[in-house]
Design a protein that fits this description.
Elements: H1 3-8, E1 13-14, E2 21-22, E3 30-32, E4 38-46, H2 48-51, E5 57-68, E6 72-74, E7 78-89, E8 92-95, E9 99-102, E10 106-108, E11 111-112, E12 116-122, E13 127-128
């Protein structure tokens, strides 16, 4: 199988250490409208409700075609893995299977003209820039 074909395969997600595979279309996505987000839905994996006010969080995030976010700053690391589609930032265009590691105090405004599905891990909550 070629790398191009692998990049086009839908992601396989698992629930828990011993849980079986789940289809991302079966996840409970909720619209997110805070902090200047438009066209974005999130399935929270864990949040500051479990980890504390300044703790880490992780989610599967779905960007609809044309989705945007306002510029925001990350006080801690943010790791983004593009599962499908294409994510854009001011620094570049990231297709499926791209891994972005945003260092502390970085500012960006991700968007997706064609839509995408990403895994995001935040070390600390974000702040509007």
């Amino acid at each position: 199988m070629t790398a191009q074909l692998l990049a086009e395969l839908p992601p396989v997600l698992f629930s828990g250490i011993t849980g079986g595979p789940i289809d991302h279309r079966e996840l409970d996505f909720r619209p997110v409208r805070s902090n200047g987000r438009v066209g974005i839905e999130m399935h929270q994996l864990y949040s500051t409700e479990e980890t504390g006010a300044d703790g880490p969080a992780a989610a599967i995030v779905r960007y609809a075609p044309g989705a945007t976010t306002a510029p925001h700053r990350h006080p801690g690391y943010e790791t983004i893995y593009v599962l499908s589609g294409v994510l854009e930032t001011d620094d570049g265009v990231y297709p499926a299977n791209s891994l972005l590691v945003m260092p502390p105090d970085s500012v960006h405004a991700p968007r997706s003209p064609e839509g995408c599905l990403v895994l995001v891990v935040w070390e600390q909550p974000v702040h509007l820039a």
